[in-house]
Amino acid sequence: MAITACRVLTPPGCSQDEADVFLDYEDPRTLAQIVEAEQEFFDRVSYARHHVHYDEEDPEMADDRRAGVREWRERMETRYGRESLQEAIEPGHDPA
Fold first, then answer.
1. How far apart are the C-alpha atoms of 66 and 35, rounded to whole Å?
2. CB 10 within 8 A of CB 19
3. For a tag site, which of 2, 11, 23, 25 has the least CB within 10 Å?
């Protein structure tokens, strides 16, 4: 008697038809897609933290660093859209 992969993956107390729903999914993402999604997540978290913790008027910050931060922020806003990035830091957001 052969055991099919579907039967092996069937969780206890779950019918085969119910288990088949779990097996009806899209192809897994490629490594490149995963890396891209990971970078986007990192960028979005960094952007939110930047808004919470960054003080542009800090007299101890060097001018070239301040300019670099502005350029980075503009790149993120161009890449993901300012409104999309702002959603995570509107009133009521979780602290970054």
1. 28
2. yes
3. 2
Burial 72-84 (b: 16+ CB within 10 A, else e): ebeebeeeeeeee
pLDDT tens-place string over residues 5-62: 444 556 667 677 666 666 666 778 899 999 999 999 999 999 988 877 777 777 788 8
Measured over the CA atoms of residue 69, residue 74, residue 78 and residue 81, the dihedral's sign is positive
- CA-closest candidate to residue 45, choices 80, 92, 88, 91: 88
Residue 44's Cβ-count burial label (10 Å; 0-12, 13-18, 19+) is middle
Where residue 92 falls (left for φ over 0; alpha for ψ -120 to 50; beta otherwise) is left
**What is the Cα–Cα distance from 59 to 62, expressed in whole angstroms?**
8
